[in-house]
Amino acid sequence: MSRIAIRARSLLTPTEEIPDAMLLVEDGRIAAAGKREAIELPAGTREYDGRPWTLAPGFIDIHIHGAGGCDVMGPGAEALAQTARTVARFGTTAMVATTVTASPDDTCWSLERIARAAERQAARPDEATPAAELLGIHFEGPFISPARGGVHPREWIARPSSALLGRMLEAAGKWGRILTLAPELDGALELVEQGRKAGLVVAIGHTDASYEEAVRAIERGACHAVHVFNAMRPFSHRGTGVLGAILTRGEVTAEVIADGVHVDGAALQILLAAKGIGQTILVSDGTAATAMPDGTYRLGTFEVRVLGGVCRDGEGRLAGSTLTLDRAVRQMVALGARPLDAVRMATLNPARRLGLETRKGILAAGADADLIFLDDRLFVAAVMTSRMPEPQRIQA
Question: CB neighbours (10 Å) of residue 128?
């Protein structure tokens, strides 16, 4: 048995903060977590002194297209692995690979390749370098509104089709996790039910829906909202639209890109006031340009240009981001959130949305040992995953 005890300045579990803490890890799982004096170490336990840092669960990114120069829909076998290694350096230890609208053939080819990569990763017993675990696939499109399609190629935006969704689900195998759609489209409500029956989290996004249209989808089972405020009908006090439904329906979780570009700080504060800490999820919407210099990169089947760290298409529209979740956490703290709550929005909340809250996003007995070590400024100093024997320091 592999056993390691990690002493930390504090733990962010993230439902509580525990000072002068200890975490006991056995064979990649957390065996105990709490105050140092309350945990008895078995004989032969290796000890790791992490007292300069705060220990938290690894971040979980449920909306990411790529990183480190690679797009998850790209042709290279290394694309998923490079993305996973890159984001792990910034504390993301689990992710949902996200597609962008493309032709049905290109989409299904990519889904099959991502699924194979996920199977290969799951078959590996251990790893020497931190890498985010692939939890599944997020289908962002093609069943979205042409009026709110953003950079999604208009020629491949499709009307809701049970047959096409079935083909996508077959290509993804057991790895389908999230479906984004526009609920106002004819046939969308039937896809909500089809997606739910297939075990997907059905999300509202890239939508021009009215309040009533959004509510109907929520009542049929849609339970998540994709990059809130972006690619949505704007809010008005007389016509609240889809945002009115998202902000007032308690069962709907709201993901947001907190990079200081996609959403104004005041809007982020409004979102938190309306949804609360427990229903807000931080995502990156990261692209191949994440952790890379300015230049031209691939997003799905098209190119985007990055200048000053901001991704745009040839027409100047925002096209994903270069955000990492550690930076999103720091942004929320700068806006007034407690570090404990900001970490929760990037860990336990996405885990709960995926139904993985006993295994991911939490420091508790039985959970996977996906861990990050945070310094006083909430930068990631070290990372450990359930596939690693001990933490690895991150070089600045």
Answer: 9
